[in-house]
Amino acid sequence: xxxxxxxxxxxxxxxxxxxxxxxxxxxxxxxxxxxxxxxxxxxxxxxxxxxxxxxxxxxxxxxxxxxxxxxxxxxxxxxxxxxxxxxxxxxxxxxxxxxxxxxxxxxxxxxxxxxxxxxxxxxxxxxxxxxxxxxxxxxxxxxxxxxxxxxxxxxxxxxxxxxxxxxxxxxxxxxxxxxxxxxxxxxxxxxxxxxxxxxxxxxxxxxxxxxxxxxxxxxxxxxxxxxxxxxxxxxxxxxxxxxxxxxxxxxxxxxxxxxxxxxxxxxxxxxxxxxxxxxxxxxxxxxxxxxxxxxxxxxxxxxxxxxxxxxxxxxxxxxxxxxxxxxxxxxxxxxxxxxxxxxxxxxxxxxxxxxxxxxxxxxxxxxxxxxxxxxxxxxxxxxxxxxxxxxxxxxxxxxxxxxxxxxxxxx
Length: 411
Ligand SMILES: *Cc1c(COP(=O)(O)O)cnc(C)c1O
Prior knowledge:
Layout: H1 4-7, H2 11-23, H3 40-52, E1 56-60, H4 63-73, E2 81-85, H5 90-98, E3 102-106, H6 116-121, E4 127-133, H7 142-151, E5 155-159, E6 167-168, E7 171-172, E8 179-183, E9 196-200, H8 203-213, H9 240-250, H10 253-274, E10 279-280, E11 293-297, H11 301-311, H12 359-366, E12 368-372, H13 392-410
Parallel strand pairs: 2-3, 2-4, 4-5, 5-8
Antiparallel strand pairs: 1-9, 6-7, 8-9, 10-11, 11-12
Bound molecules: pyridoxal-5'-phosphate (PLP).
């Protein structure tokens, strides 16, 4: 089941896409003088950057490619370490490995985002950046993270794949650090099947990012080469069809988040009233989080396990691939030493990836249960819950189902 944007896909997306198809101009580059060029990707980049308060936007093919481009734009590579939470989607980690750097896993706290206090313990002379992930729509503790990054002279990358449109103290997520990245895959706030974007305020970073994303080219709307291609890049270009879908989706973002907040409040109010002792995930900005999920922290692992069994869902610990313990690709440095481009002799031996290496993260996720509000995804552990189209009656019924089961477990 998809993320919230999918439920609001309709006439607007159809119109935008039709314009592109009828124009016959499917790639992102074109001339201003060409009436057939609809410049959807260009418009998307500018509209998102403007609304979110960033100077520059760059659309790419996915959230993963946005991360790879971000890391390369900041010139992070072999010999560098990047601190990243142990609870995130594998792309946060794999992108670091792809550019030849070393991911250093850090603990989360009760917000389910990276724990700023734990980051400090993991800084070494090789540390180049912190990759903060706004997990499940919930903003990281940005004040603390920005202070640590400044003090230790580290880049701050905001992986905002799960929190497009979220805010921290009235600023959009993704524009406070050095680069913010977004994903538009089918599970995210808005989607086009796949797609990604990054935002930055630094001209130099943007230029390098643009070059990395397209074979060293300079950022021009027309995309014409102007010489001086100093960067060896890749092709992570977004095409006009994707840009068209995303433009329509993006223009609905306020409505969409308002709807998520409305449903979440209804659900949460019932839980708060019926189960006053129930603990929820800590929110670093209650108004700014986007409300795709409602996360409950049960008192113990045992009570959490009993409750999920009754509800037919799973605790976050057991829900799949967002937990480092379930990332068989990296455990025991398996894939990191599998061969080119990750040669074992270049890989420092003092960094470990082992089950149980983040005891605090494990303890929190063992008692954490995700209830879906906008993202119905068993991979996130949100197999139980509601969706953006649920009626008030359905929301009430689901919430009471949770209350009944929780009361049995907690009595
Ligand atoms: C989805 C996701 C990504 C990657 O996005 P894709 O578009 O699937 O490549 C990166 N980081 C996080 C935290 C994500 O949830």
